[in-house]
Structure prediction request, 507 residues.
Amino acid sequence: MTQSRAWTFAFLLLILVWLGLFLYASGGVRGSDQYWYVSEVRAVVAGDPRTNSLWPHFLLGDPNYIESRPFIHQGAMPYIIASLGGVLDPYRAWIAFNLIAAGLGAWLIYTSLRRLDASPRVAGIAATLYLLLPSTLWHASQPLVETTVALLSAAMIAVAVRPWNPVVKFAVLIVLAMIGQQIITIFQPVLLAVLAGFLWAEWRGGGTRSIRLTLLYLLIAGLCFLLISLKESTLGFSITQLMMNGTPGGTNMDLWLHEGTLPFSPRLFMGKLFANLLVFATPNTNQIFFLPFFALLLAIGVGLFAKWRQRADIRALLVGYVVLVALGVYAIVIMLHQNQARYILYILPILIVAAAWLHHERIERLLDRRAGTLAVSAAALSLIAVGAVLAMTLRMESATSARESAAFRRVMTGEPAVRDAKVLIECYHGGASLQLTYAIPEKLFVHISPEHSASQLKRIAERSGTDLLFCPAAAATSIRESVPDLNLHPVATTKIGPIAYEISRID
Prediction:
């Protein structure tokens, strides 16, 4: 067997192993947002694209909210995934779509590196690495949007390295960014930043084409800012409001839970930012995702420094610029939201392509030695071992989630106090609240906070047309203690998983 065929066989074997891990990990819905994503597709397939997860911010501010009930994820993904709904159930449709997206992302990484003069071996290692990294396996095997965002990032890089006419390249990047805009708003500033870099490169080359591209860029910028303003009004929250969401002591749903607006506080925002940055240094399972991320950043930093010392061509400058844009996007996301490991996947293809290209000559020389081949083999086996643990974890958690969802359904359809209720008030307690809305799609659930006042809770009950409260017993006790002028009468109790729940009436 020739060396080329041996490497091809090794890549195919690794892809098959990854596919096995992916399918094993995809055992069912678990987590938090995963319940929403599946529920939204299920609603679209059923012909009623409305959520059953309601929030006080909109309930108390919009008299038509119960009738409209827009999805929490206001984008195109539920409708895209629902196109597979005639063949697969909503969960399996998500998994099938993510499998395709992950595979296409790996292929685009390979083709981008080949276009950048990397050898088939180096490009194959980079593409396979993308699949085997914990971030890709963990998030692609769940109903989450991050794998699609990563695919769009990989596509933007693949277009950027093509030797096309710059106007054509601009047009294709615009199309990709507009598609991305329908998934996450962050794609608009990404588009502007990336196009600015390529515009700069064209100006360095001179010529009248640079003037035409500048005018096109200004037009695109105007359209992007217009779309951003429309998207913001659709969400109902300003940038400063998002900055105040999830500050220390709160949850990432604070804006949705509270009436009106949250006043901006620099102190609270800095506390949120510090807490988000501290996640990087906190010893927990997230380090499985963060360590490869920092390893790639280190490799890129070393590679860019070497190129700078060699007075490299403009391609190295553009690669460094695009990496900085990607890191800027990542920083914005963790500042506005939370430092969750899944956001790494947004920019992972960009980091892999950049690191592989900057070091492709060194890697190629290393692979010609036996030690290099052994190092790659050891790394692949290590990633497979980590992937196996992750897949087993997902499988077990999915099984636990299925049992808990069935228990929620038994309570909601069997308990006389809530069996016939169309709407229930529910004390928000993270993923379990979203699991409840997923398990009983025919009922509406209004999520509340123990911090609501008696008047707010009574208004929520009046607006929603129910006085039934379903929440953890500990939360019910907290409400009684913090809101003593509210009469909360227990009706029934039950236990689902490790949590004891209480059904009460608000008087």
About this structure: The two ends are 79 Å apart (CA to CA). The chain is about 70% helix and 5% strand.
